[in-house]
Amino acid sequence: MDKKTYLKEWMLRNPGKRKEYQDRYVKNNPNFKTMVSEWRKKRRREQPWIRTYEGIYRRINGGKNGKYKQLRYASVKMMMNPTQIRDLWIRDSAFLMKNPSIDRINPEGDYSFDNCRYIEMTENRRNVRNPGPKPGCVYKDGRICNKRNIITP
Question: In the predicted model, is pLDDT for residue 50 greater than 80?
């Protein structure tokens, strides 16, 4: 039995000692963060749709600690798992795209298999839902739009 298998079985047998194991392993291994970072890079290379899944998850749940939750995602739900995102990746041939990006067909709907598609990032940037006024624009009544406020003449 190799070390990884033994440690997994040990953690299942001793759930209360998980913290003790993590402290012992992480504190005694100075390269632990580097190892995890390399593992994530390898996983994203081999399974590029995982990055999409992580991005959706962060947008809906508000980042790593939940304090960056955006109001526009308050009612949106994640209805897919990584396997379905992989099927979506294959269905839309995202592996042939230069910079694939996930797009919700109905922006009010959830992230579901039927409501999502992969498109090029340049095309997705053009699909701005509520662009609003651009800085420097002039309205018909003579007001000038600045970055944050409207300046009246």
Answer: yes
Closest by CA to 52, choosing from 11, 97, 106, 109, is: 97
* Region of poorest pLDDT, from 6-10, 26-30, 62-66, 83-87: 62-66
CA–CA separation, 143 and 149 (whole Å):
10
Instruction: Name the token pair of 39.
Output: 């593992």
Confidence of residue 149 (pLDDT cuts 50, 70, 90): low
The DSSP symbol for 77 reads -
Cα separation of 139 and 133, whole Å? 9
Q: Is the pLDDT reported for residue 85 higher than 70? A: yes
H helix or E strand, kind and range, residue 117: strand 116-120
Rounded distance, CA 44 to CA 50, Å? 6
Report the C-alpha gap between 95 and 66 in whole angstroms.
31
